[in-house]
Write a structure and sequence with these properties.
It is a single chain. The protein is α/β, with parallel strands linked by helices. It is built from 3 helices and 3 strands, in the order βααβαβ. The chain has helices at residues 19-24, 29-36, 52-60; strands spanning 9-10, 40-42, 66-67.
Amino acid sequence: MAGDNPLIVFSGDAFNPSLLSTVTLGAQMPPVLNAIGVHVACVGNHDLDFGTSQMMKLIKECRFPWLMANVLDKESRTFLFSFWHLAEKRPIL
């Protein structure tokens, strides 16, 4: 049946802003995102609200890749994330 196997893409700002995130620093979100079956997510500007190290800690708890084109490591000047992710999803309708 159509719709039984959706591709779930999260478009950013997963860890903040929310009232709960101000207390948990976004820690409530990785289990939720994993539970709903996110396939890939993009980093949003508010994901950096609690600092890069907190964001990276939360991302490591996620069971899916994160993408972004313009987030650089401050010291090495290398990109922290891939620009793309290739996934095979069936069936294609």
